[in-house]
Amino acid sequence: xxxxxxxxxxxxxxxxxxxxxxxxxxxxxxxxxxxxxxxxxxxxxxxxxxxxxxxxxxxxxxxxxxxxxxxxxxxxxxxxxxxxxxxxxxxxxxxxxxxxxxxxxxxxxxxxxxxxxxxxxxxxxxxxxxxxxxxxxxxxxxxxxxxxxxxxxxxxxxxxxxxxxxxxxxxxxxxxxxxxxxxxxxxxxxxxxxxxxxxxxxxxxxxxxxxxxxxxxxxxxxxxxxxxxxxxxxxxxxxxxxxxxxxxxxxxxxxxxxxxxxxxxxxxxxxxxxxxxxxxxxxxxxxxxxxxxxxxxxxxxxxxxxxxxxxxxxxxxxxxxxxxxxxxxxxxxxxxxxxxxxxxxxxxxxxxxxxxxxxxxxxxxxxxxxxxxxxxxxxxxxxxxxxxxxxxxxxxxxxxxxxxxxxxxxxxxxxxxxxxxxxxxxxxxxxxxxxxxxxxxxxxxxxxxxxxxxxxxxxxxxxxxxxxxxxxxxxxxxxxxxxxxxxxxxxxxxxxxxxxxxxxxxxxx
Length: 509
What we know:
- The protein is α+β, with helices and mostly antiparallel strands and 509 residues long.
- Helix content is 56%, strand content 18%.
- Strand 9 and strand 10 form a beta hairpin.
- Helix 7 runs parallel beside helix 11.
- The longest helix has 60 residues.
- It is rod-shaped, with a radius of gyration of 53 Å.
- The N terminus is likely disordered.
């Protein structure tokens, strides 16, 4: 079994989560930018070098045409004179572009490579001549000479160079046959090292920005996470207080909107739990009181019978037995109501499912009337009916509906002077049941809490019946309300209860 210390060691603070997330986002962003930047830079270098070579080749083509025309006009010149003329033309030409380096070379069987650099000459620049020879040898040894018009790359001193070959042809005489032409070559190349130096400088700057971004992300995460950490700790302590039964609401400002909403929800939860806790305590106190009263009566009269207190008067003994029976019946009804209202509470919280079925509302109404009629006959009071519903169905639990009607009829029968009326009608998608009596009505003080548990009128029994009736109506997606019947001058004519239950989708008239 792990110790408490070991469990804590595996917990990661919310600040670390936020810090790690921000660092990861920063690194991924910089990585994506770096990859995109590398791709864009390489593409840009290739396209830029190709453009510069194109510009230079275009100028060389114009130069080659002019050179070939001049040579053709000066037929009879020796190869040395032609070469000298070509070099002078290159040096003095204003048509050649400076976008790329140019190397003029021709065939030379005495050379190791079979070619000789003609331009730039050593008299022009020894370093340029050496570089031209080195570049030419590297290119020819790597891929030979190909004048296909496609820019290629070669490695020179660990750097990429972009190059292309161009032919410079001229005719040694007026003969225009293919064998009369001699050929010189131009190597057009661009050294990309300067571009890559700039790219490396950008990468170093990007690396510095990564380090700076990580530092800024760390600072930002600390600033952002501290209020969240503090608020989450407050909510955790608040939840602990609720678990210990302390339902005082959480006070103070919470920075995060989500945690603030959570705090509001927890405050409402604490308020409801406090109310529920108070209701439960009150319920158990009242239930204990209501259960103790009939039990004391039963115990008292039972002991009286046991010890012969009523032996001298048989009438008193029979009366004591009747009281025991009545109190037992009252106790049974109270327990059944308590169990039913507990079942409704469990159903409301989702811990119990009330079994329901389609019930014919008219048949159900007639059964209710038959069931309560015996109580009216015994009390000598009248029950009048006005049923205006056809074959309508409701989705309900039959036993619960019967108990709801019994509790309301019992209440009206207790306070009625002579008559209780029962009406049923369909209004829209609901069935309206109205039960009213001709008694003294309901006082304003009792009316506002009439459906509260253990709220009783002057002649009330245990205060559970009407509370149970409301719970049953709400469980069946209905409602119940109480009011007083009054005439035109405001005189109270009796109490009235209105029950509204929804009609099921199936109707059959």
